[in-house]
Amino acid sequence: MERLCVDKDKCIGCGACIGIDNEHFDFDDEGLSEVISQDNLESDDLKDAIESCPVNAIKIESEN
Question: What gap in Å lies between CA 21 and CA 15, rounded to an integer?
């Protein structure tokens, strides 16, 4: 199974992912991106959001 993750140590809160894909991302209380949905991980908007992150803080990881 795969899981969408945001590395909070890398995230700079630019909001690009949220602007592209607000189905999966929103700001947390600290102004950083957080994952709000694990559904539809194959969407084109999600792929675009991952690619748009300037610090590569977003990943889809395999759960063991």
Answer: 10
Q: Write the DSSP assignment of 17-45 as a string of letters.
A: HHHH-TTTEEE-TTS-EEE---S-TT-HH
Q: Residue 44's pLDDT is what?
A: 98
φ/ψ bin of 7: left (φ > 0), alpha (ψ from -120 to 50), beta (otherwise): beta
pLDDT in tens, 8-56: 999 999 999 999 999 999 999 999 999 999 999 999 999 999 999 999 9
**Could you tell me the CATH number of the domain that includes residue 43?**
3.30.70.20
Considering only CA atoms, give the Rg of the chain.
11
Tally of structural domains, the chain: 1
